[in-house]
Design the sequence.
């Protein structure tokens, strides 16, 4: 396995292979199999573009050769920062075939995240669109290129400027050795347990298993049309079952740039979409919009909701409104995926987050002393299994904090389990704000704010919110007197530093001092209570 990654112990490797979970095929090889089987059927729809399986397969081969001509090879890290487009799919499969390793950035990321990611991954290449939603990605690339010594190539889908155009890369396919299915295929970004986000190595065979389990659970077939509204570069939409699950089944993937009903509903009608994956705030918006829409949504068979807590009442409203199957999903880039099944009762799908998908997912719920809690009680969720990582990439110094000695990943989530084995997510101990499915690491935002000369101390916590579930609230202790317009200035400061929009605090409050715990750390329990009181007094607008 790639240096800097932690391998599963040998006994687990042989067990997972013997049980048929891990197959001897790389992700790029799997696309070849799918293309052979589904050949002239439509694989991808992106605006007016339609690619068949054969076209996608050929493009992946031609691009792989092009990336190789650029000097990329097996093990090279490539930060892929593309929106939901057909090119995104072609690029990642090209890199899989070459054995180069995509690092999945989210479209909302900006200079700060990309610079960090490229440096952390020691990336040699960065793949971007020219512009997307008003941002010129080539400008981000200019800055990152000047800062990260390992970075050699910038590849642009669209107008390349001084960089290399993605279209120029397509060339005669060449024979490439198939990567070892047990090796890393790509990296996902963690939502953050403690500290800055970390990189999660996913191997070909563990991810292929993840895709197979979730596609089977959701009943994907050739007749599946999957609408991608969440970022395709996020685990949920990429492979739970998502884009890969639909391709595996011979279905059709429709790529959309946002989940806004004005865009998504016409696509559902036009393409006869059967399934989509949503985060809870989007599920609320869709439920409202469906009441008055003039578009025909009757093709929908299954809607997945996950990424953050979905209230039971909202789930019931959604079931009533759409009359299709609802599937709750509780997953994480690190691995574990729990989902309800289409055959589950209404109570199960509205009140639980489903069951872990593999019979070999070992889930423990423990108390603060590490002992298993009694059935039905809430505990810290630990997990080990055939598609859950054994260590973050290049994170030796934090390993003992994130994993138990016997290899369980310490998720930072609090959950309970029903007698039927369904998990209910109850909260979390990790210092992360779950802003409607988008994860904001408190440490990361605090670090940025502390870099401002007027800021002496800062504590960032979640405040409850009717639409997003949680919003980000920053408590700031200023050096000297708080200046007029100080929070506006801090917002501007974060923008200047190139922090993604979704990480900018929604609420601000100045304090004389942060409350402290006995050991002198910022008392986040108190800060959260304070943020909740303020949110109750002044709810944010539902937008
Ligand atoms: C998904 O993945 P990530 O990596 O963005 O975030 C993982 C974290 C979990 O540890 C948990 O704290 C939270 O997001 N979460 C949920 C949840 N699903 C995820 N919290 C409450 N209820 C849920 N249903 O978010 C993700 C990956 C694959 C599939 C679905 C979601």
Sequence:
């Amino acid at each position: 396995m790639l240096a800097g990654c932690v391998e599963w112990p040998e006994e687990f490797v042989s067990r997972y292979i013997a049980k048929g979970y891990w197959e001897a095929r790389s992700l790029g090889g799997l696309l070849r199999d799918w293309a052979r089987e589904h050949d002239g059927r439509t694989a991808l729809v992106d605006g007016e573009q339609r690619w068949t399986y054969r076209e996608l397969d050929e493009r992946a081969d031609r691009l792989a050769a092009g990336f190789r001509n650029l000097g990329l090879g097996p093990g090279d890290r490539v930060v892929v920062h593309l929106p939901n487009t057909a090119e995104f799919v072609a690029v990642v499969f090209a890199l899989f075939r070459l054995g180069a390793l995509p690092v999945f950035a989210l479209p909302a990321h900006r200079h700060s995240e990309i610079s960090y990611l490229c440096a952390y991954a020691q990336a040699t290449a960065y793949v971007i669109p020219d512009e997307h939603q008003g941002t010129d990605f080539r400008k981000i690339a200019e800055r990152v290129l000047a800062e990260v010594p390992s970075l050699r190539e910038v590849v642009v889908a669209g107008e390349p400027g001084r960089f290399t155009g993605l279209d120029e890369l397509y060339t005669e396919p060449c024979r490439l050795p198939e990567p070892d299915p047990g090796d890393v295929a790509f990296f996902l970004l963690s939502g953050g347990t403690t500290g800055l986000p970390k990189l999660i190595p996913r191997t070909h065979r563990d991810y292929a298993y993840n895709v197979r389990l979730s596609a089977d659970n959701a009943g994907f077939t050739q007749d599946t049309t999957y609408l991608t509204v969440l970022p395709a570069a996020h685990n949920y939409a990429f492979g739970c079952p998502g884009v890969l699950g639909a391709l595996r089944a011979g279905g059709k993937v429709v790529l959309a740039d946002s989940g806004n009903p004005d865009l998504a509903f016409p696509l559902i009608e036009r393409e006869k979409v059967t399934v989509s994956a949503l985060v809870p705030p989007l599920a609320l918006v869709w439920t409202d919009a469906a009441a008055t829409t003039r578009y025909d949504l009757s093709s929908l068979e299954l809607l997945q909701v996950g990424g953050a807590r979905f209230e039971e009442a909202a789930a019931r409203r959604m079931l009533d409104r759409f009359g299709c199957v609802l599937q709750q999903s509780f997953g994480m880039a690190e691995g574990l995926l729990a989902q309800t099944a289409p055959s589950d009762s209404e109570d199960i799908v509205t009140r639980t987050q489903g069951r872990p998908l593999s019979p070999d997912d070992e889930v423990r719920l423990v108390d603060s002393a590490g002992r298993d809690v009694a059935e039905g009680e809430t505990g810290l969720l630990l997990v080990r299994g055939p598609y859950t990582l054994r260590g973050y990439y290049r994170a030796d110094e934090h390993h003992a904090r994130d994993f138990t000695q016997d290899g369980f990943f310490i998720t930072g989530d609090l959950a309970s389990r029903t007698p039927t084995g369904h998990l209910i997510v109850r909260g979390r101990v990790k210092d992360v704000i779950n802003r409607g499915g988008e994860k904001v690491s408190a440490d990361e935002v605090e670090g940025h704010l502390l870099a401002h000369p007027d800021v002496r101390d800062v504590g960032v916590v979640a405040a409850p919110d009717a639409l997003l579930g949680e919003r980000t609230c920053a408590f700031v202790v200023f050096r000297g007197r708080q200046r007029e317009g100080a929070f506006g200035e801090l917002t501007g400061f974060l923008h200047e530093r190139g922090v993604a929009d979704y990480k900018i605090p929604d609420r601000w409050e100045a304090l004389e001092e942060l409350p402290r715990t006995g050991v002198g750390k910022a008392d986040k329990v108190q800060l959260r209570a304070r943020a909740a009181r303020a949110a109750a007094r002044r709810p944010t607008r539902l937008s």
Summary: The CA atoms of residues 265 and 294 lie 9 Å apart. Residues 191, 235-236, 240, 306-309, 328-333, 337, 353, 411, 413, 425, 428, 434, 437, 439 surround OOB (CB under 6 Å). The mean pLDDT is 97. The first helix runs from residue 10 to 18.
